[in-house]
């Protein structure tokens, strides 16, 4: 069935949606009354454009937005946040681990680097207090995250990746049984089942990770916003960025045209960002364990 036919079928099934109403069936199935521009394009499957995103789907998504809060609520007597903070503070300092001196509950927004450091010790944090099913579910999700970070894969590593995700699904019922979740209709959670297929067809997931371009948020957004008066800032940011590009282009021209020319531009060092603070605490071997494939895996 073509996408255009699917659209007509949906309108036939839910005619009230075509008149601007919002039937509960559309909300339950997460449908939107939008006619996409690619609906009638030949040889177009927009879903093949969706690639893995380790930062927003795993670290900040499944782990940061969901797994941490689920496991926290699974602690007995509602002591989750207090107990988790206490365990993070009591963690023995180590050169390859980040020490969260104030716990994790007081901060509302974490970066990807901080989530990766939490993942290294999170299974130990929830041990011996939560239900074994909670620990098995957390282990399955964390194993999947680490397998997804491999820079090379083989059939064995991909099968273990699928097994880790299956282990999470076999034990996730504990969160429903405990009243923590009513369902698992979460888009990011669903997309993870397609990771192995995406890796087989496109290559390892780190090659598509948006964390590589996250630094541009500082250069193209945060610094530009700081240069405005915070009113009608989009127009001011656009003007500021255009002028910066002109300066860079003219500087490149002078470097080419004038022998011995040295740029006098001073980078903006006043912006304090969470990313910069994270970099200070990172150690050289933080990511060693994340990017190593099994020794007996052949390159695919």
Description:
The chain is mainly α and 300 residues long. The chain has three domains: 47 residues, no CATH class; 158 residues, no CATH class; 46 residues. Helix content is 53%, strand content 0%. The protein contains 14 helices and no strands. Helix 4 runs parallel beside helix 6 and helix 4 packs antiparallel against helix 7. The longest helix has 25 residues. The protein starts with a helix and ends in a 19-residue tail after the last helix. The N terminus and C terminus are likely disordered. InterPro entries: Plavaka. Pfam families: Plavaka.
Write a concise synopsis of the structure shown.
The chain has helices spanning 3-13, 15-18, 24-28, 54-73, 80-89, 112-125, 132-148, 155-171, 173-177, 187-191, 195-202, 216-226, 233-257, 274-281. With 300 residues, it is mainly alpha-helical.
Topology (SSEs and partners):
Elements: H1 3-13, H2 15-18, H3 24-28, H4 54-73, H5 80-89, H6 112-125, H7 132-148, H8 155-171, H9 173-177, H10 187-191, H11 195-202, H12 216-226, H13 233-257, H14 274-281
Region (Disordered): 265-300
Biased composition (Acidic residues): 269-290
Helical segment count: 14
CA-atom Rg in angstroms:
24 Å
The averaged pLDDT comes out at 80
Structural class: mainly alpha
Indicate the proportion of strand residues.
Answer: under 5%
As an assembly, this protein is single chain
Bulk shape: globular
Query: H/E order of the elements?
Result: HHHHHHHHHHHHHH
How many beta-strand runs?
0
Helix proportion range: 40-55%
- How widely separated are the two ends? 34 Å
* Biggest sheet features: none
Unreliable stretches: 1-6, 269-300
